Amino acid sequence: MPDHDTDHDADHPGGYTTGEPIADHAAPEGPIAQRWNTRRFQAKLVNPANRRRHRIIVVGTGLAGASAGATLAEQGYHVVQFCFQDSPRRAHSVAAQGGINAAKNYRNDGDSVYRLFYDTVKGGDFRSRESNVYRLAEVSAQIIDQAVAQGVPFAREYGGLLDTRSFGGVQVQRTFYARGQTGQQLLLGAYQALSRQIDAGGVEIHPRTEMLDLVVADGRARGIVARDLVTGEVSTHLADAVVLATGGYGNVFSLSTNAKGSNASAIWRAHKRGAYFANPCFTQIHPTCIPRSGEHQSKLTLMSESLRNDGRIWVPRRPGDERPPAEIPESERDYYLERQYPSFGNLVPRDIASRAAKNVCDAGYGVGPGGLGVYLDFADALARMGRPAVEAKYGNLFEMYERITAEDPYEVPMRIYPAIHYTMGGLWVDYDLQSTVPGLFVIGEANFSDHGANRLGASALMQGLADGYFVLPTTLNDYIARGGFTALDPADPAVRTVESEVRARLERLLSIEGTRSVDSFHRELGHLLWDHCGMSRTAEGLRKALERVPGLRAEFWRDVRVPGAGAELNQELEKAARVADFLELAELLLLDALVREESCGGHFREEHQTDDGEALRDDERFAYVAAWEHGTRPVLHHEILNFDHVHPTQRSYT
To answer: Catalytic pick from 89, 350, 415, 455?
Structure first.
């Protein structure tokens, strides 16, 4: 491991420095199964009558944000909540299709809290914290109870119990689902709880409003500066604590499965105000997406991983075979996942399934335009189960696929290819979900805390709701109870400085009047990242991208064209501010990928692979969280990962 305070100019055009180690001091000692109960008991409480005097800002209204806002308001806090959509119901959580994990063991198939904990640590390629992951597994069962009580219409089996199915990386059926609409149904449950508090006055909701910066005063997060996306008005909102529930940064790649509005501005602005950014290179590729069709696309479409339960993935055995799939006999089909990973078959983890698809396509066996696709075939399932049963489980997904591709998946196999989907990296937080800026809490995909180098399917909804419903309300209580708050004057220099910087930045974007559109810069950045920091990375490619990004960023600030004015609805201005942040984040992402000279999970360095082409970790040098501090040159702090219960081994799914 590098010495502290060491310059590394050779590794980065601007150089970086290795700083002092960082540690999670919030996690209690003792048996892992007792740590969350220990922390809950140790946490100080706030008298319900006193909570009314405290304002809490929550940015984001997806599963993490809506559950947090509703729960904090139910506790008695005055919550001020923001979303850039016109309604909290339109948060990107609605796009989650396949399910939510929980260790209830309804199937009596050997599942347990410990097995969910084990599968998650292993699935993340041993780059996550044991304490956080065990708590997530422990809380998972409570999430299902909460959702059922809210009326979430989970699928049920014949005896009336909730039904479950398998997802990648596991050999039990622990995934609860509502057809292919699980995220939407869970969000409606959280939204109705939030709506109850909006109506009661506990939550002050600000839709169509985007956070543009964080206010830090006396070393604490005390508010945000936001812009009304309809009128363009810039305003400041102050509170005793700030919660970011703003999702991931996958759209830095331009084309991803994320909604086009999903962006990283909130966490990136917080990073520039002092919050460490952890593991930015840990980005997830989802193996089951509709292949891209051209430059006209604004996003890619996810087909639920649940389809891999009954669909079989294959390619022709002959390179360049352009026959229709129905004309290719069984003997000339390669069910490559079943062949390579007989124990897990089509349900290997996402990183492994994605790389396997890339490998067969790179070798010339891909199908569809450009050979960038593999078949996901339901012929066997239709013959075994019958069409009505398949429609009951996957009907809305099949309908969505047909509307987008004009191909009927009941008649011909789906064509799928990997795409950017989720980001395991995010702002560094401790066991309490608090960042390195006191009073700034980060929940859901916006933080890095639970998934390591790869997220198992159906665990995003689990983490978001665990953080919002159960973890944050305990740990934020403790922060508020420890007190020391004084009213912050809106005229305070710490507030005015942030306001003026936000206004100046918007004015600068509008004043450039260049020749290139915002989208053209975003597409170029996305191509650069996908080519050099996508499913596989090399030192040469990462250095090439690192050399190009500063130049692209300079071109952006010299030649971007943002029409319109600031004091009005101006979506080009919104996009420009976000792409400006992406152009900075991309450089840190590339640098983190270059520094991590190993392969693990979704981070695959071609120089570090086994003879079988699997990821080859270097536990001796890289069993750490990379926590980056913003500065003229980035500062890398290491959080050493200790494994006392799940000992790192070479991942095997054969």
So the answer is: 350
